[in-house]
Write a structure and sequence with these properties.
This protein has five helices and five strands, in the order E-H-E-H-E-H-E-H-E-H. A five-stranded parallel sheet has the order 2-1-3-4-5, sandwiched between helices. Strand 3, helix 3 and strand 4 form a beta-alpha-beta unit.
Length: about 120
Amino acid sequence: MVAKKKILVVEDNRPLSNAMKIQLDGAGFDVKQAYDGKEALEKVDKDFFDLLIVDLIMPEVDGFIFISEVKKRDIKTPIMVVSNVSGEESADRKIKTMVDTYLIKSDISLEDVVTNAKRLTGSVV
């Protein structure tokens, strides 16, 4: 039996986080959740994940800081940003160079998240 790929969803909007979890679980992933960057950092320090799905605007520690901290820790896990931050701000442009996929929430469906998760984890698409 092949082990399920493990995904951490870092999203402060609990209904959206739960919807992503349900959709990804249904696609065969093992999904854990964190509701801010601080909680997510604690989880990545304790466990291995095959993919991190990260919102950028969150309380405590935002997604920008979380991603920077993941990179500082030399964690090689692929990162998918799912956010409504879509401007050309310098912080936005910088973060795009640090992640594997950048999706705009208002432009995608949960199926798009699953398709990208499969691609980034090397799962069958």
